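In the previous chapter we treated chains in isolation. Here, by contrast, the input contains two separate entities that must be folded as one system, with a combined length of 628 residues.
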Amino acid sequence: MNSFKPAIIRNLRITMTLALSLAIAPCTLAQDDMQDAQIELSFNEEEKTITAKVADTAGVPAEAVELYFYVKRTFSNLPIGDVFNETDEDGEVSVQFPADLPGDKDGNVEIMVKLMDSDQFNDQTLTLSRRWGVPTEWDPGDEKRSLWAAAANAPIPLVIITSSLIVIIWYVICYILYSLYRMSKIKPNHS
Amino acid sequence: MTETKQGFKTKREKELLGYLVGSTIRYKIWIGILLFFIILGLIGYYRQLKFGLVVTAMRDYTSWGIYISNFVFFVAVSLVGSLFSSILKLNKNEWAYPLARISEIIAVSAIICAAVIIIVDMGRPDRFFYVLKYMRIQSPIIWDVIIISTYLVISLILLHISLIPDLALCRDRLKNIPKWRHKLYKMLALNWSNHPKQRQLLAKITKIMAISVLPVAFAIHTITSWLFATTWRPGWDSTNLGPYFVSGAFMVGAAVIIFAMFFIRRSLYLKDYITDIHFDKMSKLLVLLSLVYLYFNINEYLGPSFKMVGVEGEHIIELFVGEYAPMYWFVQIGGLILPIILLTIPKMRKPLPVTIISVLVILGAWFKRFLIVIPSLQHPYLPIQDVDESYRHYIPTWEEWTITISSFAWFLFIITILIRWLPVIPVDKKSEFEISA
């Protein structure tokens, strides 16, 4: 991991220290020991890798801390990297960003790094935008008539078939109702 | 007895219209039991409305639970109306004429319950009209909404037209009844006077309805099957699903009729009209329909179990030897194969044995719908990562059970009320034959 760490390429270094403080009085000893981690994210623009460095409040690298990397999608967050991404002895862990993920029209994607359920640190989430996605143009006006289109763009044959069937069967129902009405108007035969 | 004050002219009229007047303690207890379960269901539904669908066991995997399997069951039962009013009538099966009205009453009740259950399954029932307002004709759900409303109207018309001559008799003969009921009979009898022109017109209407109900009945259950077949899930991804659903529907419909025949003939003292011959014929019909359904079952399971591909294979294992195996084998053996074998024995076609066998068929049919809906949902082709373990299992909550049991109470309640107010066997035998023919 350290091999590509020197600034051979344009490195973006972001340090975010969360200023979360415990608002409620400590209840247990375990909660007292919890602290906020310092997470540093660096991005290798050429290789599209994300490196996270975790340290405790004193700046000592934290080893074996599990981080979760996600890319924000329309409905949920897409996990990237390995199943488990643990920091090494330098407190670092790197993941590869997939080359084929669609982004917005400029290729922007939102990358999330989460620290969750740690015994040592409080939960944290860092979100940053990178232009690493495949630019995707979406013009709703271009929507063609299809089964998955909006109501106004239903396939014409489908509209014709379903409408015809509905008209035929409801014509029969209306005819029956009319016949019943006619039947009710027949005067009794007293003879 | 209030019967003596009525204007019955024949013994048949007295026997078939007499029970419409007054009520017995047994009837009141029965209604009380049904109302108890209905109220229990309303409590469950109140909680569902208040807290949302979170009170059910439905989650991201099993998003269709027993509400939908119950819906499919009721749609299946509703097909029985077309079996008698169309198939048997057009084929001039005279033995089935006295049973046609029972089948139509059951069809009406079943389709009302099916329509209501769909709304119960909605998290926000107040948004039901959005389905119509923003409807997309591409969606099979919309096809289902359209066909269910159409079939409901057709079922009501079928029931009504078969009743018209008898409603006129109720209007003319029943004297000691509340005014509102007399008005209702008068209104529904449509000025029926047995005029030759009226008989001619009614015969024509009956024939048109007998022909037109058949494609609609086939459509209603085929479209219900398409709700599944058009969704890419193991067990649903099949071209067999339409006929598989329709044949299963006719089978359960016949079983429900036998069950109803047994209790109607006992409670209304109609042993002279619903005879052992009817039970014998219905048993044979049930065997035939069960054999057809067995054929489609073999088709449905043989292919996937022979190939055992991926998730489809997991689904088959779950059914054959997994979590759902006891239910699956009860459905196939207890609800399908055993009834076929037993009903080939003449003694088993007597009223009591065939009614017990019909209960097995009905239970099998209900659990069959459960097996169609739930296990498939628990094996998605695109599973959720790190899914919560609870999503992989589905055990309905008490709210779901009370609502479901209450739907059956509603089903029986509607049938009971209709039977109590309407002549369940055609009074004018000759007229019924003539009109139907």
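Helices of chain A lie at 29-33, 156-184. The two ends of chain A are 108 Å apart (CA to CA). Compare these points with the single-chain example from earlier in the chapter.
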